[in-house]
Amino acid sequence: MAPPAKGELSDAEKELYKAIQTGEVSEARTLLNRVRIDCLDEHGMTPLQHAAYRGNYDLCKLFLECGADPNSHYHDSGYTALMFAGLAGRADVVSLLLEHGASTTAVNSVGRTAAQMAAFVSNHDVVAIINNFLPREEIEYYARPHGLDKEAKLPAPLVGPLYQLVVRTNIHPVRVALWLQEKRELLDQSAKVERVLSLLCEKQMKEAANEMLALKCHHLAFLLRSCAKFVREHPPAPAPEGKKGAGLLEPLIKTWLRGRDEDDFPVLLEKLLRQSVREFPYHECTILQQLVHTLAGVEVGNEPSAISILAEAVRGQKGYDQGASCTACGEPQADKRCSACKSVQYCGPVLPEAALVHAQATLRPPGRRAPGEGARREGGAGGEREARSSREGAGHHNRGGEADDRGFRCKGTCRRRRLQCTRHCHTHQDHLRLRSSDAGGSCNGERH
């Protein structure tokens, strides 16, 4: 079939391109019945490519639902819609195009793929999404019986949650555990899910020759097995009437994040990740050999840590970091800082339990009690007054969006860095007294 001629547009098609430039979705929708969905302008760009270049998710979704070709390559330089979306840095548009069959291996006139074009302009999040993409059909295959199978290896309702897990770009154990905590169905049938992940690992290693995805599937299966084992051995206690219970995996997450006394390094988390690497079954894998070679000479507690190396393997190496990652869960672009040390960064909690996990397990060192906790245990009016003043002080510190929403502040980093304490007071009056004094010294986490 001959390609459509470039630049030969009807009046309605010209109006469609103008609507794309101004971002008018409703106007574009009214014109779709009078245009060719894959018409080409004078440069060989389709309406979908124009929308992808501008990062307009709604227009891209509209055109794809109407049958637009995501792999049109008639552009003067051979660019596809995925390349334009990668250059625009819109992760949501990139994911949408991938879900509708956009090719990740197509190259332009200079032999560059969409991932390479995105990396050229430092859109590393887009690169990670493209490299971690797996067609949904790969998961749906296991939801149907094949050959002599009497039943499918994976129940159909688990296809969606498992697919979301596999295409995640953040494989930090804390983030995965927080996500599994919300997807209880994966934990309830962990044996079947783990088997499918193992089969995906084998397929990616032997058929697709994608070592990165094979290592990722193995890592996810390992974390799922660890979380499911914890749930079996520590069934959650029923929550009091009218109150929400603690997260299913919250105790496990706190255990992972608990640091050692001298430098707060999470030793248990490091050992967990190293065990995951050791259990990878394909020893001839190049990525595995690089991981082992790097970690073998690093003592536990030193850098590079196992999670930093695994993250580079999955998300790709960067020339520089565009933003700090969350100290607790590794989520990129952490936008909050500890109000005391201005050093520890963490992300805004996506899940309800995340704030408590960040505050109690990461921002406050192990063994330290929250302000007012000891007084509440002792009871009495004095305890109530101290607990009330603690809450007031926490609210005061949180002004400006710097501190944690629950009023916890980092004391471990302050202790290491020997910073002058002006924030670890328990009441508003103590805070004012400290700010007006010249008393120095480092914070030891006690009441002033």
Detailed description of the structure:
ANK repeats lie at residues 43-75, 77-109. This protein is mainly α and 448 residues long. It has helices spanning 11-22, 25-31, 47-53, 57-65, 81-88, 91-99, 114-120, 124-131, 136-140, 159-166, 173-182, 184-188, 190-206, 211-233, 250-257, 267-278, 286-296, 306-315, 354-363, 373-378, 380-397, 412-417, 428-436, and strands at 336-337, 345-346. It folds into 3 domains: 11-126, Serine Threonine Protein Phosphatase 5, Tetratricopeptide repeat (Alpha Horseshoe); 132-233 and 248-317, no CATH class; 336-436, no CATH class. 50% of the residues lie in helices and 1% in strands. Helix 5 packs parallel to helix 7 and helix 17 packs antiparallel against helix 18. The longest helix is centred in the middle third of the chain and has 23 residues, at 211-233. The termini are far apart. The relative contact order is 0.06. Mean pLDDT is 77; it is low at 350-448.
In terms of structural class, how would the helical and strand content be classed? Answer: mainly alpha
Helix residue percentage: 40-55%
User: What composes the largest sheet?
Assistant: 2 strands, antiparallel
Order of helices and strands: HHHHHHHHHHHHHHHHHHEEHHHHH
Oligomeric state as shown: single chain
Radius of gyration: 26 Å
Number of spatially distinct domains: 3
General form:
globular
Q: What's the number of helices?
A: 23
- The beta-strand count equals 2
Question: Could you give the order of strands across the largest sheet?
Answer: 1-2
Low-confidence stretches: 350-448
Query: Beta-strand percentage?
Result: under 5%
Amino- and carboxy-terminal Cα gap = 80 Å
Average pLDDT number: 77
